Amino acid sequence: MTDNSESKGPLSGIRVLDFSRILSGPYASMVLADLGAEVIKVEPIEKGDETRGFPPFRDGMSHYYIALNRSKKSVALDLKKPEGVKVARELAARSDIVLENFRPGVMDRLGLGHEALKAENPGLIYCSISGFGANSPHRDRPAFDIVAQALSGVMSVNREPGQPPNKLGLPLGDMAGSIFSVFGILAALHERDVTGHGRHVEVAMLDSLIAMQGYLSQIYFLTGESPKPVGTKHQSIVPYGSFPTSDGYVIVACLTERFWHNFARCLGREDLIDDPRFSLYQARLENRDLLEPIINERMIRDDTAYWLERLSTFDVPNAPILSIGEALEQDHVKAHGLVETVRHPEIGELKMVRGPILFDGKPASNAFAPSRLGEDTQAVLMEELGYSREECEELLARSAIGARMGSCTQDG
């Protein structure tokens, strides 16, 4: 069980005001929370972040919301009411970072755009994540993960040859935007320590996925041709990918000549090492259609367990293809403590995958369970902004804020 009091993390003392929802922003703010920042998540007072309604549920709490919103406080505000916007601006004036992932222009219309908040807090780091960015011809189009994947080109290569295009199993369009926004935020925090001034960090999901193309974009720039789909195989390295066994598949990755030689010996085909059709990278790439059937014909004779043991014996990079459940239960995950347990006040113990970053061999900070909608509204207003209980109750009566009644006391 995680004890939230043990570790504060390197971002302790940094406050994030998070207006984002769904995935591209919440993943970023969760990473910042994992690193020790205080994250105040602003949600609509009726239903909160849309993901609170995404099934499946456990005791009314969505798997999706749980996965992306640990270690955050929930403050429910109606940003269409002046009183709600006033509270939001007061919180922004006391925050280090504001994060939002609305379409360009939405926050400006609410009176919560970068220029408005910067005037009250010059050191504020304001991060905007959107599908396409303010200068894109697509700026006003709705963007979700699969849209970014389609426009980035990644779906065109994420398939076996001759098969329909397929999206990545991971929501990388959303997550890439989150990851790059964290990079930008941390860089801006460092700069602010020197200059005292904040920045407007802007990240587009589509830009982020295109930036992650790596060598795929260079294949196009150098050859003038788009990379073709190769499934689990590699665009320029052979042999690499999944190979059939008598009862499944095994991953083999021969990125160096040494590993290729080891693999040939593992197959009992040392003659392939000096065969001019397969002796060098370029030759194997040009003769992929000749080499891979030779490998397949040998490997399919024995089962997966046999090949995993034999490949390891010959020091060939290899892996079984695990399900999500198998991946979470493997010894590596247990050894690294990647699954942590937190306690939720209503549904009890929750297992969650913690962040991967370690400092001195330990996670940056300890997690706490996702908050119930509006659970922290009154506490934040009273403790951080100095509101009285009567003022909170008046805002509740006007439906400018939402809160779980009795969630705090006068002294917090």
Features:
Rossmann fold, formyl-coa transferase, domain 3, 412 residues, disordered C terminus, 39% helix, seven-stranded mixed β-sheet
Average pLDDT taken over every residue: 94
Overall shape: elongated
Number of domains: 2
Helix content: 25-40%
Distance between the termini: 24 Å
- Write down how many β-strands occur, each being a DSSP E stretch of 2 or more residues: 16
InterPro entries: CoA-transferase_III_domain, CoA-Trfase_fam_III, CoA-Trfase_III_dom3_sf, CoA-Trfase_III_dom_1_sf
Protein name: Crotonobetainyl-CoA:carnitine CoA-transferase CaiB-like acyl-CoA transferase
Pfam families: CoA_transf_3
GO molecular function, one term: CoA-transferase activity
Concise structural overview:
The protein folds into 2 domains: about 15-210 and about 340-400, Crotonobetainyl-coa:carnitine coa-transferase, domain 1 (Rossmann fold), CATH 3.40.50.10540; about 240-320, formyl-coa transferase, domain 3 (2-Layer Sandwich). The chain contains 19 helices and 16 strands.
